[in-house]
């Protein structure tokens, strides 16, 4: 006989503080930048955890609200450490890659990330991301700097867990 205990995947201790992320989140966001027109989008994030591994898998996709046409997608891996630091690698559908480092707060449910490397980008110099759980919603904002424009707000969204 299988017991409940045997059928439950084992959550790695390094992932446990961020286990609230696991699952699928969907909502809407807004984007803009000094060099582009402002826009709105639909978005879905998915966080997964391979049992017994100290990693969270991450996928993201966005679409135009008016037509459902795909816009942007990215995927990667989040590596939380027991000391409250985190390393994240992301590959974007545009060909850009990010290696980010940052911190997370278990009590405040905040994750702050800053790019260490932005690869294959002709214009982007720096990316910062902040995720926060607010009243059960996952909210985030992304700031970006280019070689000609200092760090500016770029994206923000509020997502509900499905």
UniProtKB/TrEMBL annotation:
Reactions that this protein is recorded to catalyse: peroxynitrite = nitrate
InterPro entries cross-referenced by the UniProt entry: Calycin, Nitrobindin, THAP4-like_heme-bd
SUPFAM superfamilies xref list: Lipocalins
Domain THAP4-like heme-binding: 15-161
Recorded superkingdom: Eukaryota
One Pfam match: THAP4_heme-bd
Stored CDD domains: lipocalin_heme-bd-THAP4-like (cd07828)
Signal peptide: none
Protein name: THAP4-like heme-binding domain-containing protein
């Amino acid at each position: 006989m299988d017991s409940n205990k045997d059928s439950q995947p084992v959550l790695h201790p390094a992932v446990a503080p961020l286990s609230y992320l696991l699952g699928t989140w969907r909502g809407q966001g807004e984007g803009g930048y000094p060099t582009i027109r402002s826009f709105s989008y639909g978005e879905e994030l998915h966080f997964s955890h391979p049992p017994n591994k100290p990693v969270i898998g991450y996928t993201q996709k966005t679409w135009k609200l008016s037509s459902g046409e795909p816009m942007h997608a990215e995927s990667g891996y989040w590596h939380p450490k027991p000391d409250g630091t985190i390393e994240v690698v992301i590959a974007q559908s545009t060909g850009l890659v990010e290696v980010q480092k940052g911190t997370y707060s278990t009590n405040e449910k905040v994750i702050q990330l800053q790019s260490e490397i932005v690869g294959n980008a002709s214009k982007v110099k720096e990316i910062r991301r902040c995720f926060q759980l607010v009243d059960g919603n996952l909210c985030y904002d992304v700031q970006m700097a280019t070689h000609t424009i200092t760090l500016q707000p770029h994206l923000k969204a509020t997502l509900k867990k499905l």
